[in-house]
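Query structure, 373 tokens:
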């Protein structure tokens, strides 16, 4: 797996985090993400700057900023969705009962370090334990009544972070199964489905546009297409990014877009890439769900991601969902964790978090692996 040179890591993360801070402090929260009310901040450690979200438990935020939504409301939705194959009623009932305990424990009073308010966060290479302890101390001093969280950690890309956090007394809580592509050039040679997708990318009758061809009038359409897929088709608990978010993140280079337009010039499919330290994710995916499946809009978008990754020698983390699609194209499953430090919190909170870690490890992981979620 390719890694950026060490002396570039701090600069890259700092520059991107500064852009994040500038965007989210200069816009009212609701103008960027409709269903996120968490405060946005940064933590500074020597030359490294990391974004932070601060949720005080006052709102039902989207899952990217809310542990309560992640481990209760979203988990219930997932169980209901797969009830026909995995006894979802039983697991949904467990989630329902446990949700009240999570609320009682005020699990949503949470500070999440290195949280970009995206479905998948990318981490810098782990430096040392002393720096991590400084992070914890700084966060605890600034937000003394909040749990300290890290999201989007997996063993394949973040083994050092997971090991260090575990040693420092963090509870590891599995959240979902994501799919990684670490050598797409080889995968294209090995997987027929991926070969067909790349061929479709060249043969489609839709007009393909690249990042520099996105125009002012496209941002509203991008937000609309994203909402059609992620909010209307999947879940209202996903973050509802606005046109202002798309424009601000694109203008500063935090998002790179690829899209497909019909003959009338209307954008019909779009993907937005976020990349750091040789890793890319696709937090923005949207397409016109009313168009015929034969157009292969989702396939086109993922092929554009793969082509970009091959060209730039990137690892791709395609997050969760569409598991069968990703497996057929060489995606490697990896369990993703949140890590939470709660030693300074009331005993009821510590007990509930410890129980949540046990339940998701003993029940959640086997279920995700068995049903290839």
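Result returned for the query:
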């Amino acid at each position: 797996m390719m890694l950026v040179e060490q002396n570039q890591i701090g600069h890259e993360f700092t520059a991107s985090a500064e852009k994040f801070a500038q965007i989210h402090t200069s816009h009212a929260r609701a103008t960027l993400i409709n269903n996120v009310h968490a405060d946005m901040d940064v933590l500074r450690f020597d030359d490294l700057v990391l974004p932070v979200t601060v949720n005080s438990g006052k709102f039902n935020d989207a899952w990217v900023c809310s542990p309560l939504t992640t481990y209760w409301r979203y988990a219930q939705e997932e169980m209901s969705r797969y009830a026909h194959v995995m006894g979802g009623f039983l697991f949904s009932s467990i989630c329902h009962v446990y949700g009240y305990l999570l609320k009682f424990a005020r699990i949503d009073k949470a500070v999440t370090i290195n949280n970009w308010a995206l479905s998948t966060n990318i981490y810098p290479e782990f430096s040392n334990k002393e720096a991590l302890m400084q992070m914890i101390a700084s966060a605890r001093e600034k937000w003394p009544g909040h749990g300290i969280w890290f999201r989007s950690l997996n063993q394949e890309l973040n083994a050092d972070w997971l090991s260090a956090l575990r040693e420092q007394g963090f509870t590891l809580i599995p959240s979902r199964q994501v799919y990684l592509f670490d050598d797409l050039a080889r995968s294209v040679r090995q997987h027929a489905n991926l070969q067909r997708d790349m061929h479709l990318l060249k043969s489609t009758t839709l007009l393909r546009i690249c990042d520099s061809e996105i125009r002012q009038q496209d941002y509203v359409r991008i937000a609309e297409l994203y909402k059609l897929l992620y909010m209307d088709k999947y879940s209202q608990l996903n973050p509802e990014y606005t046109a202002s978010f798309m424009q601000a993140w694109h203008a500063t280079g935090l998002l790179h877009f690829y899209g497909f337009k019909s003959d009338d010039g209307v954008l019909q499919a779009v993907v937005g890439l976020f990349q750091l330290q040789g890793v890319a994710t696709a937090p923005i995916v949207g397409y016109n769900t009313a168009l015929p499946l034969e157009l292969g809009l989702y396939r086109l978008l993922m092929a554009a991601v793969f082509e970009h990754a091959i060209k730039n020698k990137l690892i791709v983390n395609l997050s969760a969902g569409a598991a069968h699609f990703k497996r057929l194209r060489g995606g490697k499953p990896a369990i993703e964790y949140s890590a939470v430090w709660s030693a300074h919190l009331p005993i009821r909170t510590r007990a509930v978090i410890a129980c949540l870690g046990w339940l998701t490890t003993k029940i959640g992981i086997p279920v995700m692996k068995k049903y290839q979620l």
